[in-house]
Amino acid sequence: MFVGAVFFPLLGACISGFLGRWIGDRAAMWATVVCMALAAGCGLLAFWQVAFGGQPQTVPLVTWMDVGELEFAWALRYDTLSAVMVGMVTLISTLIHLYSIGYMSHDATPSRFFAYLSLFTFMMLMLVTADNLVQLFFGWEGVGLASYLLIGYWYEKESANAAAMKAFIVNRVGDLFFMLGMALTFHVFGSVEFDTIFSAAAAKADESFLGLPALELIGVLLFLGACGKSAQLGLHTWLPDAMEGPTPVSALIHAATMVTAGVFLICRMSPVMEYAPLALAIVTVVGASTALFAATIGCVQNDIKRIIAYSTCSQLGYMFFAAGVGLYQAAMFHLFTHAFFKALLFLGAGSVIHAMSDEQDIRRMGGIWKKVPVTYAVMWIGSLALAGIPIFAGYYSKDAILEGAIAAHSAAGSYAFACGILAAFLTAFYSWRLLILTFHGAPRADHHVMEHVHESPAVMLVPLLLLSVGAVTTGFVFAPYFIGDLQAEFWNGAIFNLPAKHMMEALHHAPDWVPTLAKATALGGIALAILLYGVMPRVPGILAERAGGLYRFLLNKWYFDELYDRLFVQPARRLAVRLWRVGDARIIDGLPNGAASLAAGAGQGAVRLQTGRVASYAFAMIIGLTLFVTLFLLGR
Known about the structure:
Elements: H1 2-23, H2 25-52, E1 57-67, E2 70-78, H3 80-103, H4 110-128, H5 133-151, H6 158-189, H7 194-200, E3 208-209, E4 212-213, H8 214-229, H9 238-241, H10 247-255, H11 259-268, H12 270-273, H13 277-298, H14 304-324, H15 328-355, H16 373-387, H17 393-407, H18 411-439, H19 447-451, H20 458-482, H21 487-491, H22 503-507, H23 513-535, H24 539-546, H25 548-555, H26 560-588, H27 590-609, H28 614-635
Antiparallel strand pairs: 1-2, 3-4
Helix pairs in contact: 1-2, 1-4, 2-3, 2-4, 3-4, 3-10, 3-15, 3-20, 4-5, 5-6, 6-8, 8-11, 8-13, 10-15, 11-14, 11-15, 13-14, 13-18, 14-15, 14-17, 14-18, 15-16, 15-17, 15-20, 16-18, 16-20, 17-18, 17-20, 18-23, 24-25
């Protein structure tokens, strides 16, 4: 069961990737879905046994490395933290695989797509079940590789190739810090195995490295690595461009894999992070800033997938600042609920794109809600969960994070709460902006496009309906276990909190006005969107014209891409050109080529002298003899 949950997706990837040409695309797709369903069954059983049955265990597979002091095995670590991730990843991925059968039915190479998709899932499962940092890094790099393959899946499009390269390169920046953090961890603890690290964390709290607190430095380095994978402010620029891949890829990246890896890493390392208060404060501030920053951009985007992508970036900020104030349980709860409603929103957007003949600009939609009633209903459910409206899943996890930020009683926590409240208002606003412009009002698409608008097939609707159930129920069903009275038994030591902080106790004593304010801001954002885009649809255009500078600033994503282009890309390109022209062409090629040219010139000169005529040779000898005699006489 424990092994099957991880390796069934790898089996599906091998079947689809290596045998798809012989068994046919349709057989390869269904074989992959069956393998994922088996993985989901194993994953859910493992979740039940470990989280609810209180039976954590580690399954050793093979000794990976034993060189000097560096020794670690390849093993599957199943505690509650891992079991939550395995159950969620396998279930969400199975639904996305099933949905992809309908969405990718007209693609030229679906077996290749399904192989990449299952490989992506396998790498994420290796990451979350890792028993040591090196194995976690293997999965970490694996999801980076798989995301590169999937984002650039339609490689005939230049934009897809550029987006894949951008994601890969930006993540390499974060991965450098991860590797430095891993190396420093081994230097401090003498091991990369989690059990050894966690048991010695308290004893190493006062240790320093180069005059700096070692655990603080480890925490900051690992967080910077997490910023790359989880698209936090500064290393976020790859995330919206990742929309170049097929919509199921966007759903898998944003809901279950890749971007959640950074949050998981911080929660996994909670026994170390708890002794690094400065690192946690940095996590809090960056996470809160990301939540607000991404929400402001989402308000003006027009691509339906990019709006949801910036929503993911914003929600990841919530997860990080929850972990930053010590509420790792609430961070994981929001990660868990977010997976369902974000997968629902992306797949719902894919259903809209499918219905609109691949149109993604919400300005060219409108008036389609009666033609796609199921898609319309599930998009409402996903938006209600995202906005944090009571009963829906996002309400329970997001409110817990906001209450925890206040309960932290710190400057970083207060800043995070302020950013979180503003981001909640903007989230509700752009969610209903998307709903209104996509489904309501007069049709703005071409006439022939509107004639062909249709509901998606059942193979795409069934995953949407199942995800909508999760978007409604996972909040109130799992809240007692993740953050409620049963959380101690549920987590069973998988997450560590310093007793002195009492964060979980403080969470239940947050002021009553906090949840009230959260509900009011969400409803206010919805009301403003309805007023501007439903009642007075001309007003947003007027406001955009009058606030032209601010509007362009947000529309151009705070000009981060332009800034990075000027600071890093252009200088690197100029340096590369200079090295090519001087270092390569003149020096590396110039020296041997110059010597070769000199030898060739000398040879050509010799060829002119060696004519093969006896008279010429005799004449040259007479000249030489004359010169010799002349010099001899002059010398006397």
